[in-house]
Amino acid sequence: MQVISHRGYHARHTENTLPAIRAAMELGVAGVEVDIQLAGDGSIAVIHDATTARLWADPRPISAHSAESLAALGTGEDRIPTLDEVLQLSADYNIPIILDQKSPEVALAALGLLKIKGLEGRVAFCGELPGLIEVRQHSARTEIYLNDEGLFTPDIRILANLKPSAINPQFFGVSLGLVTSAHAFGLDVSCWTPNSEPELRAMAALGVDKVMTDNVELALELVQ
């Protein structure tokens, strides 16, 4: 079972920041999942929420910010990075990232950046279905994790359209039937976010291929 860090190693660093992502990579994870939002100047910000209120004490939506105003909310590397910066970190450590997108607009913006940088097909996407559909329509090579409710294999029409490499439900939606049928279709099963030891052990027992977890150190210890 591969361990993917969910929003970086944010037990010790602010989630989705360069220190959190770097710390996870230095622990030896198989990948890092990060969230992306589209800023008002067209830049791609690595942040989960639609506003900067929760972590950065600023109530404005991401769409009201520029890359510069987002960066100014933090100090040093403890700030909201751009996707460009995260891609560079991924290259430095040779550890892939998975982009959790929330809309077709940010998904296509990210895909466009990847194409410009020659990274199409080397960065995976997960998240909301409309954005995943747009990614697949504009790129046959991009890896897709299909977020799903779990328990049963997704609609065959969605699988045929998206051609995902993995089904990616929340962990309590994982069942033995789902894992067995997904593997029969040649698909991996990824899930988010089992964090306790019983949850992680249960996923391993069910044959889950990848876990996106906040408890990176524990997960790595259990799979070694």
TrEMBL record:
Q: Which Pfam families match?
A: GDPD
In this chain the GP-PDE domain maps to: 1-223
Recorded hits in PROSITE patterns, A to Z, give:
GP_PDE (PS51704)
Name a GO molecular-function annotation.
phosphoric diester hydrolase activity
Check the record and name the InterPro entries matching this protein: GP_PDE_dom, PLC-like_Pdiesterase_TIM-brl
Q: By its UniProt entry, which CDD domains does this protein fall under?
A: GDPD
- A GO biological-process term: lipid metabolic process
Taxonomically, the superkingdom here is: Bacteria
Q: Tell me what this protein is called.
A: Glycerophosphoryl diester phosphodiesterase
What species is given as this protein's source? Bowdeniella nasicola
